Amino acid sequence: MAVRGSAPRRAMRASRAGLAPAAALAAAMLAGCNGLPAAGGGDGRPHDPAPAAAQRPRQPVSLSLSVPRGARDVGVDTDLSVTAANGSIRDVLLSYGDAFPTRVGGRLSPDKTAWRAADLLEPGQRYRVVVHAETPQGQPTTKRSWFTTQPLTLDQQTYASISPLQGKTVGVGMPVIVKFDVPVNNRASIERHLSVTSTPSVQGSWHWISDTEVHFRPREFWPTGTKVSVDANINGVDAGNGIYGQEDRHVSFRIGDSVVDKINVKTHRLKVYVNGRLARTIPVTSGAKGTETRGGTKVIVEKLRSTRMNAASTGIPRSDPNYYNIPDVQFAMRVTYSGEFLHAAPWSVASQGSANVSHGCVGMSTANARWLYQHSQVGDVVKVVGSHRRLEPNNGWTDWNEPFSQYRQASALH
Fold it and tell me: Is the pLDDT score of 201 beyond 50?
């Protein structure tokens, strides 16, 4: 006996099984219409998903300047810099001045994300900054800014002068001399911006004489033929007490032959050594008792073909029996600020080589003085021995009268 309703139930189950594949296909087609990734392509291979980077919005380059836009009275010792995020810097145009703008250079970091001005700032100027940058995809960005710097009077700036002068050839004892027209209180700050380089290279040190003068000397005398470059990159540098450096300076010079004069006041002889070899022995007279020639290592400060020598310049009054005023002294070479020279002394030829009769200078015949003058240059070394009177510090270029280890103690950075 058949069970009622069994046949229709089997038919219904078969009907539902036949609809399942069709429903799945419809769902897949619907998903494809909605933009969702499908399981496969028409060739049976899976679709590649869209790159994540392409779905993210591109970030613009972010540029930052170390000086805010529109800032006023910016300190001249400010280090101007630019940094970039989400991109790189192409170039920076920094300039100041209105009628004839002055361009200021700078250095870009290797990864091109940072730029720094090569110089500090000038006082009382309006600066303009234009930065060109770009994203990694090459989208350009430009940022413009401006600011003004603090005004400074000349009394608030110190200017450096350098000796020797540009292009000069000098002796092996020549110190580098930097003088300031306004006193430097922050010596260390200024000294960090002074440099001496040479070929061949030498070890040396700065040595402060005063707040307005600093010297540099090597450990030993300069080698003959040395090429020397001096840089005083002090423009805008804080010199202390509200004073700032004014204008960078650069000087190059050369060291000539080694000429060393050795004077023995007891034997009354001057021996001239050129590049280490004795070139001439000269009979001389030096300072008499009471006006002895100072002993020590001196350096020729200046050469004068002819000059007037007045005892008043050494502190001897007209009423003193030792007073003198000679209008035409030939072949004179100064070695102390107080008035010691090597020079022609035709009036004392009879005493030269046998007695000391001068007021402190070293005198010789005119012929010998001419020869020495022609074979000497500023910076040559003059060593005086046999005198009990010592050379005072800084009475001339006295840099060689103390060991190097002691000399360098007067560096602000030692």
Answer: yes
388 is catalytic: no
Contact 60, 139 (CB under 8 A): yes
Of the residues 193, 207, 359, 361, only one is catalytic, namely 361
CA atoms in the 13 A half-sphere facing the CB of 119: 21
Cα(386)–Cα(348) distance, integer angstroms:
20
Judge whether 343 counts as a catalytic residue: yes
Q: Dihedral (C-alpha) 389, 391, 395, 399: value to the nearest 10 degrees?
A: 180
**Could you read off the pLDDT of 370-380 as tens digits, one per residue?**
999 999 999 99
Sheet holding 157-163, edge to edge: 204-210, 213-218, 176-180, 157-163, 243-246, 238-240
CA dihedral sign, ordered 265, 270, 276, 277: negative
- DSSP3 helix / strand / coil % (the chain, rounded to 5): 15, 40, 45
| Strand order through the sheet with 227-232 | 169-170, 249-255, 227-232, 194-199
DSSP string, 320-335: STT--EEEEEEEEEE-
pLDDT of residue 38: 43
Please give the angle made by the CA atoms of 157, 161 and 164, to the nearest 5 degrees: 170
Give the active site residue among 207, 215, 343, 359.
343
List the Cα angle 63/117/165 in 5-degree steps. 175
